[in-house]
Amino acid sequence: xxxxxxxxxxxVGKYIGVGMxxxxxxxxxxxxxxIWVVIIETIGRNPSVKSDVSIYGWVGFAVTEAxxxxxxxLALLTLFDK
Length: 82
Fold this sequence. Notes:
Blueprint: H1 2-45, H2 50-79
């Protein structure tokens, strides 16, 4: 009986960890949105810097999206671990 309780507690901890990984993906999504908002505002104010700002925007987007992908991989590894 005690072993079943410990397994249930471990399962709950696993789901809490996966939920925390999902929250980090939410943070990455908000970061990507902020990057594009700032790029659009910057180009709207000064169209001559479009090529310079776009390069930094794509790099920032890639780094932020990589964080979300790492979080997703970590969540899947945690969820399907035995």
